Amino acid sequence: MVLTKGELSGLERRYRANLINSIGGFKSLVLVGTKSREGKENLSLFSSLVHIGADPALCGLIVRPNTEGQNTLGNILRTGVYTINQVHAEFIEKAHQTSAKYPEGVSEFEAVGLTPDYVEGVAAPFVKESIIKFACELVQHIPIELNQTHFIIGKITHMMVPDALVGPDGFIDLESAGTLTCSGLDSYHATTSVIRLPYAKP
Known about the structure:
Elements: H1 5-9, H2 13-23, E1 27-28, E2 30-35, E3 41-46, E4 50-54, E5 57-63, H3 72-79, E6 81-86, H4 92-97, H5 108-112, E7 116-117, E8 126-127, E9 133-144, E10 149-160, H6 174-177, E11 181-183, E12 187-189
């Protein structure tokens, strides 16, 4: 298959979405937990989490075009706090279901059967079923005018990882944790480690 820019634009909308979403390869799969100022909990599935830096500890998240209501975008912008929760096979169907467009004010936690969990100092809910999770505070919001998406940059404030999964050098064994990844819009995958190489030098 060889497609030019014009041919890409002419593809059927859903076919093009599947094609473009999968050509970039495997992506991180996380559930983002938020809570509105009115106390309504929200949970959404994301495949756009990216590492930005370790000092300070920053990560980025692309949020699709959305109004700033009681949803992930609105809650993050109004409260400045959110959680990132890794997804495992034991609850992948429930995680997938959070991507449905529930009416504003409906808790996805309740709708899909996942458990909100709170820790001291973090106003947003974690997912109790998730093994590896962390909390962020909003440090920068960048609207992307090209397609009306939003780039959310967060500073990591809390981390929760089982001790047995953290190596002597700080490396987290995601495969032993059963962390899933995804490709495209709706295909979920387990992983198999190939090799871990030493720090490359000239």
